[in-house]
Amino acid sequence: MHHPRMDLSGYVAGLVVSVQEIPKKDKLKHLSVNVGLAEPVAIVTNASNVGTRTVGCVVVIATVGALLRDGTKVAKGVVGGVPSHGMLCDAPMLGWVGGGAGTAVLLPESYNPGDQCPASKPRMENGGGEDSGGAATPGVGKSTGPGVDSLFEKKLTKEEKKAAVAAKRAAKKSAAKAEGDDAGPEEGDEE
Rounded distance, CA 144 to CA 185, Å? Predict the structure, then answer.
């Protein structure tokens, strides 16, 4: 059944502030999302492409009171033992073409928390180059793997990128030094 254009008045852009695993609930994640209110809202999701790399990404949230396609309203609830005050949206939920069910849609960074959700899937602004096709539309089937990883990596701030690179370099140096210390005496003994 094809629905007329959906009322998206309760659907807003949300900036993901934090993502935490819910203990003993494999696929559930507890998010803190800035939707333009005084305090971030708690959202529980099982979206396949949500993880720690989603922090700093802009997603679409169906807020409490928003009307779903089936006519029901989003309500506060408890999911996996954690309070949830809205829903993360996938493309089918929004009536968008492109993007699979169970995959959280992402908005360009130009959307601010609380901005009205667009009526159709926007083009990702920083998705230029070879990643734009695959990374921006990973949605058919499962959305895991390099395309999704690279999409989330682009959303890191400059400071986060610098910290990640510094951490990788430090880890490599300490690993190389540890290997070097272990290997040094053995090489000497063999000669």
Answer: 44
> Of all helices (H) and strands (E), which one includes residue 183?
helix 158-190
Percentages helix, strand, coil for the chain (3-state, rounded to 5) are: 30, 25, 45
Between CA 39 and CA 61 the distance in angstroms is 15
Written as six digits, the tokens of 96 are 């968008």
Residue type, 32: S
Collapsing DSSP to helix, strand or coil, 56 comes out as: coil
Residue corresponding to tokens 């895991």: 144
Q: Which amino acid is at 12?
A: V
Confidence of residue 129 (pLDDT cuts 50, 70, 90): very low
**Can you tell me the distance from the alpha carbon of 50 to that of 16, in angstroms, rounded to the nearest whole number?**
10
18 part of a folded domain: yes
Q: Tens digit of pLDDT for each residue in 56-99?
A: 999 999 999 999 888 889 999 998 888 999 999 999 989 888 77
75-79-85 Cα angle (round to 5): 35
The answer to whether residue 143 is domain-embedded is yes
In a domain, 173, yes or no: no
Q: In the chain, what is the straight-line distance between the N-terminal and C-terminal CA atoms, in Å?
A: 78
Domain ranges, residue 78: 11-156
Domain of residue 27, CATH code: 2.40.50.140
| pTM for the predicted model, two decimal places | 0.62
